[in-house]
């Protein structure tokens, strides 16, 4: 039940255009069998497709994770500036 409440709140924020940094997350996925199969993708709550993804692929999951964290921080900073507030979400390392 708690998860439904959280997703409903995220849906209301998404529909109203309200910005909440906790609605954004990134994942690292293996998207191929080449020597560089890893890419990061950033998702927003209530969206089934990524709002942003790496244009390049990485050799290791660790490398993709490092770059994904940077990309998420940049996206949150850009969204915060657009909505007139500072990003308050710390990135775990």
Topology:
Blueprint: H1 2-16, E1 24-30, E2 38-44, E3 52-53, H2 61-82
Characterise this structure.
- With 93 residues, the protein is an alpha+beta fold.
- The chain has one domain.
- It contains 2 helices and 3 strands, in the order H-E-E-E-H.
- It has a 3-stranded antiparallel beta sheet, covered by helices on one side.
- A hairpin with a 7-residue loop joins strand 1 and strand 2.
- The longest helix is centred in the last third of the chain and has 22 residues.
- The protein is elongated, with a radius of gyration of 14 Å.
- The termini are far apart.
- The N terminus is likely disordered.
Mean of the pLDDT scores?
80
Task: Write down how many β-strands occur, each being a DSSP E stretch of 2 or more residues.
Answer: 3
Total number of domains: 1
Individual helix count: 2
Shape: elongated
Rg computed from alpha carbons, rounded to a whole number of angstroms: 14 Å
Spatially, the strands of the biggest sheet line up as: 1-2-3
Low-confidence stretches: 1-6
Order of helices and strands: HEEEH
Strand content: 15-25%
Structural class: alpha+beta
The separation of the N and C termini measures 30 Å
Summarize the model shown.
40% of the residues lie in helices and 17% in strands. The chain has 93 residues and is α+β, with helices and mostly antiparallel strands. The chain has one domain.
């Amino acid at each position: 039940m708690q998860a439904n409440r959280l997703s409903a709140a995220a849906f209301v924020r998404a529909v109203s255009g309200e910005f909440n940094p906790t609605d954004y997350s990134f994942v690292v996925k293996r998207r191929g069998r080449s020597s560089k199969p890893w890419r990061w993708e950033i998702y927003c709550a209530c969206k089934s497709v990524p709002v942003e993804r790496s244009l390049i692929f990485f050799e290791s999951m660790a490398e993709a994770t490092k770059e994904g964290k940077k990309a998420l921080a940049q996206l949150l900073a850009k969204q915060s500036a657009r909505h007139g507030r500072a990003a308050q979400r710390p990135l775990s390392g």
